[in-house]
Amino acid sequence: MFKPARHGEVGGVSLQRSQQQKPLRSHDRFNLCAEMSHKIVNLRVRDVRFPTSLEQHGSDAMHTDPDYSAAYVVLDTDSGLKGFGLTFTLGKGTEIVLCAVKALAGLVIGKSLQEIVSNFRGFYRLLTSDGQMRWLGPEKGVIHLATAAVLNAVWDLWARAEGKYHAMYLSIQDPKQIVSCIDFRYITDVLTEEEALDILVKAQEGKKQREDQMLKEGYPAYTTSCAWLGYSDQQLKQLCSDALKSGWTRFKVKVGADLEDDIRRCRLIRKMIGPSSTLMIDANQRWDVAEAISWVSRLAEVKPLWIEEPTSPDDILGHAAISKALAPLGIGVATGEQCHNRVMFKQFLQASALQFVQIDSCRLGSVNENLAVLLMAYKFQVPVCPHAGGVGLCELVQHLILFDYICVSADLRNRMCEYVDHLHEHFTSPVVIQDAHYMPPKDPGYSCEMLEESGLYFKHFTFVQYKHWRGKNILKLSHKRTGLKMSKEKVFQKAWGTEINFLQSSFSVTVNRIFFFLLIKVPSFSESFDFFLILFGLSFIM
Ligand SMILES: [Mg+2]
Questions:
Q1: CA distance 14 to 347
Q2: 182-206, pLDDT tens digit by residue?
Q3: Residue 323 CA to chain centroid, in angstroms?
Q4: Largest CA distance in the chain
Q5: Residues 131 and 159 in one domain
Q6: Same domain, yes or no, for 252 and 372?
Q7: Cα–ligand 1 centroid distance for 348 (angstroms)
Q8: Which residues are catalytic?
Q9: What is the pTM assigned to this prediction?
């Protein structure tokens, strides 16, 4: 369903692609990076959306109807090798991330993989510290999401060039090279380059045994799929029962909309999973500080291990106050999925404001910035339990947590990686879960290449294609899950509603463009019409 991007797609900054379709040799890819420079000749970015809100997947106290989506980046090189990366969004606004990716494209196209990885810290800083674009962040918000998508594609390209899956490729690197990828600016007061190197060198001991252990047993996971806020009690029971049969022992429940409802749902889940299983709760930033403390205290009876995102993700001292108040109840605070950057993580750690670090593969500046956070968390001896789910987050973050265990922490106590059972079928190398553990990937790369037919790219879609995609996928989804009865009429009503909004928006933009063209290019047009009348007409249309 994806169509090949047209030449010059990103504002005319791409290079000629005449040499890029050379077939890739299959043997001994390990030496390819040394033999070939893999010059990046084009960057394509696509708007990929899935209508998950139809079945309330991903629903929580603050995001009641997410449509899991991604800004999906493909890097083309002159050798034919491609790099795939993405950043995760909730539907509306993905087009804004695409604009930011296109703005960064000029800093990427024309550079070779060798050139980038020989000074990866410099390349990271090039993307995050452009003299004009850094005003849009710096290192936060839409521009940082776009940076993550681009850098994820670069890391994917690098691992593919070496023929290794990403975590393994990271782990076989020299500690000095790993450290050279990290931008230590603003964090040297808690972690210097020398300290980071020392941690990585010491962790070399036992590395092979830990990698063998992971290949055999996998990395422990917990599930969030059973208890989205919009699910009925019948769904909760059914999904919990299924998960227990599949070997899951760690469960997370969404809370924060209604206290009495939370108490009832959490009691139900605790009863289903028994006292020996682990339960976490997640409020997705719903409360003020005092409200968080009183609300979670009422839920202490179900013995949650942590409360996740109890308040604003920016309120470091608020998290510290909540941590202090809940410590006597044995409940920790977890946060990080909307923590902007390494500097904020530094302060969360300095202020003892969290007891579980939740890194995110698409919120921070890709592997480069996540490496900094993993090393800081190790220094503060705070366990890392990554955020995952969405589109492709499980596929990406599994590499980071495997690397953390093999090459940094060497510790599994109180550690687990989130797992959500949605949309994996759209990836060429989906995650493999066995007995509630992430099994290390086997395919080369960073595991975020999507199937061609899985995407929706507005720019290349005609109305008929869009209608076909919406209808086909929504009907497929509505029939796939049990416990939800949705009529065809309701499904199409939702699909058509979105389509009509999309078409109205496109129509307005087109009409506006015609008016402006006539005003600028045709003198008689502006002379023959009253200017203010036109302005009035434009504002009415918009
Ligand atoms: Mg969460």
A1: 40
A2: 999 999 999 999 999 999 999 999 9
A3: 26
A4: 81
A5: yes
A6: yes
A7: 17
A8: 254, 387
A9: 0.80
